[in-house]
Design a protein that fits this description.
With 444 residues, the protein is α+β, with helices and mostly antiparallel strands. The protein is 34% helix and 20% strand. The longest helix is centred in the first third of the chain and has 39 residues. 37% of the residues are buried.
Length: 444
């Protein structure tokens, strides 16, 4: 066998393996989606993908609704979701007091009602049959450990809180009004131009996975529409659903809204929050979970003063959280699935990592300067724009335009997407080994 023939055979074999793996992966996702429907529909305790029916049942039985939104193919939060579907013993009796409905698609989703963090692959809305929202549950701050931000203990407390609010309804309706967002101009995801190819239902008779519209695509479509109109992305859209850490609060996921610690020199510290305070209300809204705190922060202004009520020991204390302009920008959005499309727009498909102090010393780079290591270069379509401009994995960006100060990947994306428009080219100084080069990064 000649070397050329051997190389060709190896390429063909590799292509076959890759194609087989891709087909197997697609088949596995298809199996997951169909299997979830078959299994959960057989469980009479759940209503599957039929919110109107669930609302009718909740109205007849005078029960609150537990609406679980779940992206089935996504591995993230799959273990937590499994505990909910099977009704873990810590939540079983509580869940029996709800009408439980499972929604596994964003197709046809009512965007006026379902306003939540679309980067979540598991999210729950606790609500009344008249669509009054009692609270939200579902928080994630990184890719892997789903139990870092969500626990069964915390979920149980959120369910208990919703049952208490339901028992007092409708007398407490005025306290819950702000838990519904402002009406949206676009009512369902398919109305976004980039999502027009999707239908309102899943195609269980055909390729069900391909027909499924994922929640994160809603955020992608919203940003893309602004970007294509030549408008900058506002902070609320660039840094959605800020985690409490952005204002200095580190929460205990085993509690309802219990503070584990308070970071120094932060708005939370200045307001007087203390470790083990139980946050009962923020911005006039009762809280059932960390996700409820995120909801209030997401809808807060760029400069705002939020009243907070905490239980401290046997007393209730009122505090005031003062947020200065630009407060959202402490967020880290690099873990979010929707950041993938932001990278297409702002880095041409590059994934960047701010070098640590130790890595900078090893490379003899200043601690306060830009040093963003290229850890991945997109290879296909619009995600290959940086590759086509000459960028390579292992490059270190040390300046971009007029900026040379230390930035995280999040900060670089904000710089690219707020200070530049599609079609701009940003001159970047990079280090490739010992060589310093200048490349132009296209904005898309």
């Amino acid at each position: 066998m000649t070397r050329r023939f051997a190389a060709l055979a190896a390429c063909v074999a590799l292509a076959f393996v890759l194609a087989s793996e891709k087909a197997a992966s697609a088949q596995d996702r298809e199996t997951k989606v169909r299997g979830d429907r078959e299994r959960v529909e057989a469980d009479e305790r759940w209503i599957y993908n039929d919110l109107p029916r669930a609302m009718d049942v909740a109205l007849d039985e005078d029960k609150p609704l537990l609406v679980v939104l779940r992206c089935i193919p996504c591995e993230a939060c799959s273990r937590f979701d499994e505990l909910v579907v099977l009704r873990d013993e810590r939540i079983q009796k509580l869940m029996d007091r709800f009408v439980c409905v499972r929604i596994v698609q964003a197709n046809g989703l009512d965007l006026d009602l379902f306003q939540f963090d679309y980067d979540q692959s598991f999210h729950a809305l606790l609500m009344n049959a008249d669509q009054t929202i009692y609270g939200r549950f579902g928080t994630r701050s990184e890719h892997h450990d789903e139990f870092q931000d969500m626990t069964m203990e915390g979920f149980a407390l959120a369910l208990e809180g919703a049952l208490t609010l339901h028992a007092d309804y409708p007398e407490n309706r005025h306290l819950l009004a702000a838990k519904r967002g402002e009406p949206r101009d676009i009512k369902t995801p398919e109305e976004y131009p980039s999502l027009a190819e999707y239908g309102p239902e899943l195609d269980y008779e055909g390729d069900v996975v391909r027909s499924c519209l994922h929640c994160h695509q809603v955020r992608d479509a919203e940003r893309r529409m602004l970007r294509e109109a030549g408008r900058p992305l506002p902070d609320q859209m660039l840094y959605p659903y800020p985690l409490p850490t952005v204002v200095g609060l580190r929460m205990d996921p085993r509690g309802r809204a219990t503070i584990a610690s308070v970071d120094v020199d932060t708005p939370a510290a200045a307001a007087g929050f203390q470790e083990r305070d139980e946050l009962l209300g923020l911005g006039g809204q009762p809280l059932l979970s960390i996700a409820d705190i995120q909801w209030v922060l997401h809808n807060a202004g760029d400069e705002v003063s939020l009243a907070a009520v905490v239980r401290r020991g046997l007393s209730e204390v009122t505090l005031r959280l003062e947020l200065a302009p630009g407060w959202r920008r402490r967020s880290d959005i690099s873990w979010r699935p929707t950041t993938w499309d932001l990278r297409r727009m702002g880095t041409g498909g590059l994934v960047l990592k701010d070098l640590s102090d130790e890595e900078r010393r090893e490379r003899e780079l200043p601690l306060d300067g830009m040093a963003l290591l290229v850890t991945h270069v997109g290879q296909y379509n619009e995600h290959a724009a940086a590759k086509n401009a000459g960028f390579e994995k292992g490059d270190v960006i040390v300046a971009a335009g007029e900026r040379s100060e230390r930035l995280r990947e999040t900060d670089f994306l904000a710089f690219a997407l707020t200070e530049h428009r599609p079609g701009d080219r940003v001159r970047c100084a990079i280090l490739r080994g010992e060589r310093r080069m200048t490349l132009e990064l296209p904005m898309q």
